User: Fold DUF4148 domain-containing protein from Rhizobium herbae.
Amino acid sequence: MKSQLRVLVTIVVAFVAASMAVSAPVSASQPNKGLETMDRPPDPEQAVLSEYRLLKARGTIEAYELFIERHPDHPLADDARRELKKLRGS
Assistant:
């Protein structure tokens, strides 16, 4: 029991120490300090469009099926379904 408690305390202390080493205090005069190194999240619409362009370049049935599976309600899924029909010859 004592050894388990000692391990738990050691883990908690290490976690707190690591958290303190990573985080920098933010002052009211510089509320965005430290945030300038963060990347902006990607635009989801651009990501879907990029994926669609890649599948068009591949032109395989599998690529179209995967796109439709991943984005069934996206407007480009309708285009993918039409192209998939053409590829299947139906």
